[in-house]
């Protein structure tokens, strides 16, 4: 196979190439290397982005080794987002509130700056298709785990005022509501039990799923969508190549729907901009990854 000069230069790199990457365990499934390397090649930027399989016990050593090799930044995915927090020299406000780091910048002097771009990804993907003002809306958020914290930051920074936080383990929703009421004293965040037969669905304008229900694709999603108002927006932050059970429900009932793809791309785009100073060519990346109809 003949390799063009452009791809040869891109494949081989040179002494000037700057190193980026993603740490995770597992890591093989991650779309991040593809998203970033497509963008770097498209803009002809001399960075390389590699996946690193880092076990939890090796996180600190991997971080310091990456810095010693001259790495300029990396993403973190499961299970490293929370353990990275105390290893940072500085944190951006979103990482602090979310309690997790998904993007690290290694500064010229070696300081480590932790960012979390998930909230930006969530709100940017929402606004791409639905520009509605969030103030005055009642938003039902399902789940109270790690992913939920990024959604809360996105919604509350985005102007939301009324949030119903429904979780199977009520105490987790109560703790999160108390914490976020301290961060956002003007917001009304109400913890409720996640009993699917007893949710106040007629009163909500938007439903966001942050639980891992339906993650494996097979189970049905037990939300009584017929009880929702006609234009209630459903946002499932899970991204799956196949339609998630909640997505199928929304489609079957003609409800506006946002999937996790936009969030995935836009959280990456923000990290890309932080590291390179360039805007990610988001539409080109979507087309390349998911075909012409995806932007
Ligand atoms: P993540 O970081 O992806 O949010 P997590 O912190 O483990 O992962 O949180 C998973 C969320 O999905 C939690 O809100 C969890 O509810 P509990 O706090 O009660 O565990 C929710 N979840 C997982 N499986 C669920 C199920 N079968 N039914 C309802 N909620 C579920």
Structural commentary:
- The protein has 295 residues and is of the alpha/beta class.
- It is 37% helix and 19% strand.
- The strands form two sheets. A six-stranded mixed beta sheet has the order 2-1-3-5-6-4.
- It starts with a helix and ends in a 5-residue tail after the last helix.
- The structure holds 2'-monophosphoadenosine-5'-diphosphate (ATR).
- The site of 2'-monophosphoadenosine-5'-diphosphate has 15 residues, from helix 6.
Topology at a glance:
Elements: H1 5-12, E1 18-24, H2 32-43, E2 47-53, H3 59-68, E3 73-76, E4 90-91, H4 93-98, E5 103-106, E6 112-115, H5 118-129, E7 138-142, H6 146-157, E8 162-167, H7 170-183, E9 188-193, E10 206-209, E11 233-236, H8 245-252, E12 257-258, H9 260-276, H10 282-290
Parallel strand pairs: 1-2, 1-3, 4-6, 7-8, 7-10, 8-9, 10-11, 11-12
Antiparallel strand pairs: 3-5, 5-6
Helix pairs in contact: 2-10, 5-6, 5-9
Quick structural summary:
The protein has 295 residues and is an alpha/beta fold. Helix content is 37%, strand content 19%.
Helix content: 25-40%
Radius of gyration: 20 Å
Number of strands: 12
Shape: globular
Tally of individual helices: 10
Largest sheet: 6 strands, mixed
Strand order of the largest sheet: 2-1-3-5-6-4
What proportion strand? Answer: 15-25%
Order of SSEs: HEHEHEEHEEHEHEHEEEHEHH
The termini sit apart by 32 Å
* Structural classification: alpha/beta
On the 0 to 100 scale, the average pLDDT is: 92
Low-confidence stretches: none
Listed once per kind, the bound small molecules are: 2'-monophosphoadenosine-5'-diphosphate
